[in-house]
Amino acid sequence: MDALDFSLLAALTRTPRITFDALGHAVGLSANAAKARVHRMESEGVLQGFAALPRPALLGLREGLVLFTGADDLDDREEEILRGLADVPGVRFIDAALDHSVWVWLLFRDEADFERIERAAISLVGKPPARRVLAPTDPAAKPIAPADWKVLRALQQDGRAQAKELAQRAGLTFKPLKRRLDALVRAGDVRVVPVVSPADASGLTLFRVVAFLHEGAPLPDVPGALVSLEAPGVASVLARRMSVREARAFAREVAGAPGVERAHLQVATRRAAHAWLDDALARQALAASAPAPAAVAPVPHAR
Known about the structure:
By secondary structure, this protein is an alpha+beta fold. Helix content is 40%, strand content 25%. Among the domains are: 44 residues, Winged helix-like DNA-binding domain superfamily/Winged helix DNA-binding domain (Arc Repressor Mutant, subunit A); 43 residues, Arc Repressor Mutant, subunit A (Orthogonal Bundle).
C-alpha cells in the first residue's frame, strides 16, 4: 500500500460506482493505471470487493455487533472462524484482529434472532462476548418492492458491476434497472461500500479504529481518514500510518475526539458474508406464499 492506493480507496468510498476514468482523474492517474492498482489490491486481498448494503429496516432487520476479545487460539483458527461465521444467516461482516479480538457485524429481526446468531458465534469462537450492540427498531420503514429485491440480489455479486450486467443478472431490462438502482441509491436505501481488509495490506500500515459513540453524538471529524457508520452508535475510522506505533497514537487521538466513548485499534482480516441476504430472501418468499386470512362474515345484530 502507498499514498496513491489509499487515495483510490478514499475515492471509492465516497463514490463506489465511479468509472475508472473519473477515478484516475480524481487521484492524478490514467484510467488504466487506476484500474491496475484497484485490481492489484483486489488480487492481494486488501480490497475484497464491494458490498451492497440495503437500509436494514427495509428488510425488517436491525443492525448489531457482537465483540469477542482475548480469543487465544485465533492465530491457529482464524480461517476456520471466518469461514464458519460467514455461513451463519444474519452475519454481514467478520473482523479477526491481530489483538485476538473477533468482531461480528450482523443483521437481525428481533432479540430472539440476535440470540440465535450470538449462540452460533459463541460456539465458533469458544467464549462469551465482551460487548453487544443492538440497534433500535425503525417502525416507519416500508418493505422493499419485489423488483428492488432483484436489483439488490444482482448487486451482491459485484457492487461495481455495470448496469447492463446488473440488468442481465436481475432479469430486468436496462432502463427499469437503471431507474430503480438510481432511486435506491438516491434515497439512501442501498449503499455500496468497499470491503477493506487492513491485515492483508503491506507497505504502509493500514488499520481501522472502531469508535463507540455517546448517544446522539455525530461521526467524529478525523482529517486524513475514511470515517463511516458501521452500526448505530459505532463509527469506523480507516487510516494509514508508517508504523503500528503511530497507529496506536492515532487511535488515542480518536478516543479523545468529542462524542467518542471508547475506541479500539483494529488491524484485522475482514470477511464479507452473504448468508444474511439468502435468509432474508427465503423469508420474503415464505411471506409472499402465505395464504391470505379468510374473510369473516359480519355477525348480524338484532334491531
